[in-house]
Amino acid sequence: MRIDKYLWATRYFKTRSIATGACKKGAIRVNDAIVKPARDVYPGDLIDVRKNQIHYKLEVLDLPPSRVGAKLVDIYRKDVTPAESLETLSMLKYSKDYYRKRGTGRPTKKDRRDLEGFTEEE
Questions:
Q1: Total domain count for the chain?
Q2: Residue 35: domain span
């Protein structure tokens, strides 16, 4: 099975074209080698996926016949992502929330004055 189709079938990417684009950009590695979208994967291969600044590592257990449900994904792959990578995901989430709350709109004039007072050196 093609690597882009495998990643789409195991729900790492929402569409197959996004998975193909990730392969073309060099974000996908199989057995520590950058691969093209047409590269075949086999059971036992180790795949490294860089997605949203996180390196996911997974082992191919079996090849799915087509796209599978979220509950059946673990039959076809084993997630061996290090805990440090998952911790960076939570840190990125917290850092985004720290700076500005989502949905609050543009900064006000008061926010701008507060920032200028903070960065001003006297």
A1: 1
A2: 3-119
